[in-house]
Amino acid sequence: MKHALRLFYLPNEGAEGDQVGPRHAFERALAEGNLSAYQAYSYLARAKVLGDHRLALEELLNTAREFAPDVIFVQHINDRYRVDQTYLKQLKAIPSKPKLVVWEGDAYGQFIKTMSATLKAVMAESNLAFLVGLGYLAEAVRKAGAPKIRLAPHSYDSVRFDLPWEPARQRSLDAVMIANLHNIKRIPGLHLPGGRQRKQLANAFHQSLGERFAVYGGGTGWQGKSYARGPIPFHEQGDKIRSAWMSVTWDQFPALPMYSSDRLPISLACGVPHLTNYQSGYERVFGGIPGLYWFHTPKEAVDIALYLLSMPVDRRMELGMAAAEHMRRHFHADKVYGDMLQIIKDELFPERELVRA
């Protein structure tokens, strides 16, 4: 009788343990018998400790060989940790002959911020690639050589977000935006796709709500704006979101179908309605989520905000709680990564009789 999968996880994290959601999801899968063995190797953190990229590549190869995985699950590897197809072929040729699976959580443009050479090499050697958006990005990944492409949207973890709270009836803000706005090549007004609309959206909310609206985020694009309150650590955004009656954003790369940043699941999981720009396919991926509203223009977004503020407080609180419950069922990291594990088994090991360890 054959065993459940052995998973070797390569998280993208500056400090070991930063990838809270997937780490917890894989640890839970191991505890519940959905994996027979699991090991995480924080490749960026180890490279920093070793101080030599060649040694880092050797250590990764040796660690994988010793663990003998069925699957190597790579997360967002790029030119900060250079690998080529020759190295990746070596990694896949260790005695256990693992399948290479990649989850790419970044959005990319067609002309600005395209995939790095390293990421293209990983895609070319992958057996299965999960993306957070499809359309032209799926086409680019397929052109790079990925044989199988699937959608896996962003998730959230309940270690940092969706913590127990007593929703406040009085809040310091009506709406909050958690978003950076960087200038490309330090040229004022030149942003990634969607950046110009993000700023227009913030200006429209400030004009409508005044001091009851705030933006938390970095980037020179916010300089001089009275509503901009500066960057905050990633884990603090939940408190800022809960200080308002709604969160609002205009995601970058708005032409990327079915893409949303992690702001959507985080905001809704915090029990606060979320307003975001519409992207093709949203009704299929995010349709029917209570508390989620999409719009096409800043003016439409402001109208939705005023509509929500026209509700009695109890109704707004109920809407937020319903949103959080939906996120727990469908967009928690345990659910999203658990689904990815099942897809890996279905797609790459259809002949294997997987049993609990």
Automatic annotation (TrEMBL):
InterPro entries: YkvP/CgeB_Glyco_trans-like
Family matches, as Pfam families: Glyco_trans_1_2
Positions of the Spore protein YkvP/CgeB glycosyl transferase-like domain: 202-341
Name of this chain's protein: Spore protein YkvP/CgeB glycosyl transferase-like domain-containing protein
